[in-house]
Amino acid sequence: MSLFWNQQFQSLEIQQLIEVFELMPDVLFWMKDTQGRIVYANNVYIEHVGFKSIKQVQGKTDLEFFPPHLAKQYMHDDESLLHGHLVTDRLEMNIAHNGEFAWFSTSKRPLKDSQNQIIGTYGITRHFQKSSHALSSIDALKGPIDFIRENYSRAITSNELAELCHLSVSALERRFKKYLGKTPTQFINEVRIENARLRVVESTLPISEIAYASGFSDHSYFTKQFKTVFGIHPSQMREQMRQERQERQVNVEHN
């Protein structure tokens, strides 16, 4: 029986499989080649980046869809994926289709051929707020998540979150692991890092002040965490954005 099913699955065309993502209205799905160019995307992704058909996005890179600081992160991810690294349920604060910032949960994988050679990347992103609505019946998550979003800039303990929803710390951590795939501490850290990234790019505040305002009491720890997530130090990201803005301004003046 297993051999029969293996043969049946092998006979399915890839198009039939990826079209499953058209049945998931809150999930963005995409596939890229080794150069980071879109090969395929579902309609939700296409609408998210402001287009109407797959032909309009095929062959384009993230730099043509997103602000530079976000595109650079996605490109860094792609490079890591091509070397076999994975991204699993990472929390991100990105731009929604209406132009506003929103929370997303993203997973990415290297795309391999029948010879197990990496030929590209693929990924999915879920709008975190919509996912939270789907979990609205789980009060043990909704309360702590909202609390963390509103209070990430100060110290937050697992005991505090557990008391908020009348659970033990171990029960709270099990809920987080079950529905978000991470501990409360990991979630808090991701919320802080994402908010710090926005401040690094959009403000002129000293990096040390950004670390403190984002909930990090140790500047060196903040810098280490930032580099782990984004691949560069916060000061380097700010400098990259400054140079890119200057280049765009020069191009505008020349044109």
Could you walk me through the main structural features you see in this protein, from its secondary elements to its overall organization?
The protein is of the alpha+beta class. It folds into two domains: 2-129, 2-Layer Sandwich (Beta-Lactamase), CATH 3.30.450.20; 135-241, Orthogonal Bundle (Arc Repressor Mutant, subunit A). Helices cover 54% and strands 16% of the residues. The chain contains 13 helices and five strands. The protein has helices spanning 2-11, 14-18, 43-48, 54-57, 68-82, 128-134, 139-151, 158-164, 169-180, 184-202, 207-213, 219-230, 234-254, and strands spanning 27-33, 38-41, 87-95, 101-112, 118-127. A five-stranded antiparallel beta sheet has the order 2-1-5-4-3. A hairpin with a 5-residue loop joins strand 3 and strand 4 (101-112). Helix 8 packs across helix 9. Residues 1-12 and 133-137 have low confidence and may be disordered.
